[in-house]
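User: I'm new to structure prediction. If I give you an amino acid sequence, what do you actually give back? Let's try with this one:
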Amino acid sequence: MASAPYASAPYGPPYTGLRQTGASYSDAGVCRAPKEPAPADTPAPASARPAIPPSASARQPLWWSGAAAGLAWLAVGVLTWLLPNAPAGFTEWNYTVESGIATTAGAGLLLALALAAPWLGSALDRLRPAGLWLIALALFTGAWQLLTAKYGVLPTPFFAPPQSLAEVYIDDWARLSDSAWHSLRLLGHGFLVGAGVGFLTGVAIGWSRAVGYWVHPLIRFIGPIPASALLPLAFFVFPSSYAAAVFLIALATGFPVAVLTWSGVAGVNRNYYDVARTLGASQWFVVLRVAIPAALPQVFVGLFMGLGGAFSILVTAEMMGVKAGLGWYLTWAQGWAAYTNMYAALIVMALVCSGLITLLFAVRDRVLSWQKGTVKW
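Assistant: Good question. You get back a string of structure tokens that encode the predicted 3D arrangement of the chain. For your 377 residues, that looks like this:
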């Protein structure tokens, strides 16, 4: 005889008292609600989605401004290379063919980068914003070439074509680089001395009323005097022209650094000092770890201003008495009517000054990382 269902259970199957609604009991006897079916339009999890190929997701649009710049520079290179130069007396513009070939090659490289931009991804992100500037520079260089070497509209030797600058950088590179090195060394000595003295003076004035009582009037009286006005006195007092130039550069640097450091220290919230003293901080700890860090944004502004003033007085001092440097090179080129050399030195000056300010901004962004980008350059 076949056994009846649930024969092993003396009282039959357990009674749930529920209809077949999808509800279930847990092991502890707690009734669980039925699970809602997922709606049809619910997006699939990221792990379940099909992966997008990296090449398709990172593809960038064509660099149209770069392509236009490449074509513009190609035109400049061709006219420099193939269009003959106009006769200009005894002056011959050397490196004309070489400049045309180099410009054409650079234009080809720029055009290739612009056309390959969709496959290069983000490699050209830093170069893309410069597209319009590259077009403007190409147009300016082409007009410069036509007005000087090709048609002679602008008089020589006051105006020379672009390839004459290349001639100066190639043939007179030794003297120009030596002058740039002497200028950097003189600027470094004067700027470091002025920045150090100005920083210490500003901290002392901002922290001590006694020091401020005696030093503040001197700064207000001597500081606004242009450093170049003291040039004859400095060359008379100091034993060498180099020492006099260092003093003048330090004076031009120290005044803005001292004033802005003093302003930064004096403007620190007094509650910071009270909290530090309440926690048992010493006087030196409050100065070094509270006052100076809080004043650093103002200190860097003073350093930026001091660097600009130092560079201007550097050129003046080198023109007047120092026997080497970019200022001396300018005077030498002007004396020989070598205006192309003078223009080449001015370009080097601009690059050096801009590079130093950029380096100072990088240091500022590194030290004051919480204020990165608040001051633009």
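You can read the tokens as a compact description of the fold. Here is one thing that stands out. The chain has two domains: 59-161, 173-371.
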